[in-house]
Structure formats: structure tokens, C-alpha cells
Amino acid sequence: MKIYLVGYMGSGKSTIGPLLAEVLSYKFIDFDTYISEKEGMSISQIFKSKGEIYFRKAESLYLKQLLEEDSDQIIVALGGGTPCYGTNLQVLKDSDAQTVYLNWHFKRLAQRLWEAKEERPLIASMQSYENLEDYVRKHLFERGFYYNQSDIVLKIEDQNPQEVVDSIKNSLL
């Protein structure tokens, strides 16, 4: 089985993915790291030097490549926008992969992102928490259509990472 974690930036995909992979004895791939390795530069550098349109096209190309690989038993933490651009959602739905949406309330996501905004190229320049919260709310509204088409929609409130992993594992059975 291939499992693709989807959700907004800061939803914990890169934290939950390795934990879930360990529990299931699967290989873990962080999709941003995968893209960075293929492109030979960080996601931030790609955005700065080549722009978001280039990044989104590369993201689609690498998603298709990853889905076409014969390796089963992998867990992939997708980028927050991956299922929302181009034909990526349909490509995921047409594959044999299971998608899991880590669904957080926008206020909790904004809190999590504010603490680490310097590491996120799309929000690093935000000057106020209120602006970030509005930005997250708007994006979640726009992206909810895509995220909610996941095979499993997991509502996350105050669960710790291990509890989230257990919920995913139980949902896959």
C-alpha cells in the first residue's frame, strides 16, 4: 500500500509520516525533500530563483514519477499545495495510493505556523499574527475542496503525534 499524507503546511505531515512509517515498517518520503534532491536546491531557493509556477510544474512531474515507481509500502508527506494544483488530485485519485488528510482547525494551524514562519517561504514575510490567521483561513477554505476528497479525513484537535499515528493505522484496517 502507498499512503500519501495531505494537509495544510504545519499540519504535521513530516512529523506523522516517519512515525507511521516506523509503525508499519514502510519507507518514508518527504515530498519537499524529494523535490529538493531532484532539483538540486531547497524549496525556498526554487521559489526565489524560479518562481511558484515553475515549482508547481516540477511538483506535478515528480508526483507522477513517484506514483509510477513500483515501490509499495511507502508513506509520502506531500506539500500543502500539492493536491490543489493542476491535475495532481486526479492523478492521486487514479492511483492505487491511499490519501489521508490531517485536518486541523485554522486557528491551531496559525498558532503552529507563527512559531516556525521563518522556515516557510510562503509566509516568512508576514508581519502580524492576525494577517497569518486570515491567510490560513482563506487558504483552508480554498483548499478544503481538494483536501476533503482524501480517502481518510482525520480531524485533529489535541492529539499527540502517536495518537494521530494510531488513528491513521486503525483507519487503514
The assigned CATH architecture is 3-Layer(aba) Sandwich
Helix vs. strand class: alpha/beta
Number of helices: 7
Order of helices and strands: EHEHHEHEHHEH
The fold-level CATH name is: Rossmann fold
Description of the structure:
By secondary structure, the protein is an alpha/beta fold. The chain has a single domain (2-160), classed as 3-Layer(aba) Sandwich (Rossmann fold), CATH 3.40.50.300. Helix content is 55%, strand content 14%. It is built from seven helices and five strands. The chain has a five-stranded parallel β-sheet. The longest helix has 26 residues, at 43-68. The mean pLDDT is 92.
Key words describing this protein structure:
173 residues, 55% helix, Rossmann fold, alpha/beta, 5-stranded parallel beta sheet
Short description:
The chain is α/β, with parallel strands linked by helices and 173 residues long.
Layout of strands and helices, then pairs:
Elements: E1 2-6, H1 13-24, E2 27-30, H2 31-39, H3 43-68, E3 74-77, H4 88-94, E4 98-104, H5 106-115, H6 129-147, E5 152-156, H7 161-172
Parallel strand pairs: 1-3, 1-4, 2-3, 4-5
Helix pairs in contact: 1-7, 2-3, 5-6
